[in-house]
Design goal:
Structural class: mainly beta
Distance between the termini: 18 Å
Strand content: 35-45%
Number of helices: 1
Order of helices and strands: EHEEEEEEEE
């Protein structure tokens, strides 16, 4: 069973609501909107899974599947100072993994480990491979890979 965060299903971008416009496959804009939403109790990262360059206060719960939870946080590149995002995966019994990227590279954000499976950011027209599940508008996950 897939449980989606409340905001994940509500990330709809329309010209009527966003005067600057928004392409349906613009995952960076979707991630920005997602992280800008008001936080709730589900958004708190599990203890010990913070990435050194992420902002745990900005954490937002994307959803969970097969006991694995998926989060996004804001990120600041320690070398360039460029803003970006971290994708954090947590499996309470197997561990956690994270990967961070700047805004420019956020559409290629991918994280994988043997204890958590894999997750990656996608755009609207990306083909979802067999065995993967789409969570929200911009993330596909596979707890087995």
């Amino acid at each position: 069973m897939v449980r989606l965060g409340v905001r994940a299903g509500a990330l709809i971008c329309t010209a009527a609501l966003v005067p600057t416009g928004c392409a349906p496959d613009d995952s960076i804009s979707q991630i920005r909107s997602f992280l800008a939403a008001e936080s709730g109790p589900d958004d708190v990262l599990p203890s010990g899974v913070e990435d050194a360059t992420s902002d745990p206060e900005s954490s937002r719960f994307v959803g969970d599947l097969a006991g694995v939870s998926y989060f996004l946080t804001k990120h600041l590149d320690p070398v360039s100072g460029a803003p970006g995002y971290c994708l954090v995966i947590s499996n309470p019994t197997e561990g956690a993994a994270s990967s961070c990227a700047s805004d420019v590279n956020a559409t290629r954000l991918w994280v994988s480990s043997s204890g958590t499976g894999s997750a990656r950011v996608v755009v609207a027209d990306d083909i979802i491979p067999n065995g993967w599940t789409k969570l929200g508008d911009f993330l596909i996950v596979n707890p087995e890979k």
